[in-house]
Task: inverse folding
């Protein structure tokens, strides 16, 4: 009489093999954290909401806020200047010098007997 070994089938049906506990534990200890790590790397360093994109958008926002504040201050200064001109009836010599400076620089105006030389940078 032949003895049956464990590896031999007892009946014609094949049994499904369960993964052993060591392989399952190895997957839980190494594989699952590795998969989670890869997904986190993909989430944080790629796409529209990556760390790099968010950092550059934040930097751009701060620059725009600074520019907005600077423009707001200049607007207040110009409003004060306009109000000063409205309330004064006759310009002072200081106002005349400022008007003359603006006329020379912005509008390239000159006095009658004056020569103007424009030096352009190379």
Result:
């Amino acid at each position: 009489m032949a003895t049956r070994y464990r590896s031999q089938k007892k009946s014609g049906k094949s049994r499904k093999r369960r993964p052993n506990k060591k392989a399952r534990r190895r997957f839980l200890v190494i594989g699952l954290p590795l998969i989670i790590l890869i997904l986190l790397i993909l989430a944080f360093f790629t796409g529209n909401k990556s760390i790099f994109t968010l950092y550059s958008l934040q930097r751009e926002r701060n620059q725009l806020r600074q520019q907005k504040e600077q423009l707001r201050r200049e607007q207040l200064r110009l409003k004060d200047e306009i109000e000063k001109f409205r309330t004064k009836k006759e310009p002072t010599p200081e106002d005349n010098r400022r008007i003359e400076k603006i006329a020379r620089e912005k509008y390239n105006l000159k006095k009658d007997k004056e020569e103007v030389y424009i030096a352009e940078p190379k």
Observations:
- Helices lie at 21-45, 51-87, 93-107.
- The mean pLDDT is 81.
- The radius of gyration is 41 Å.
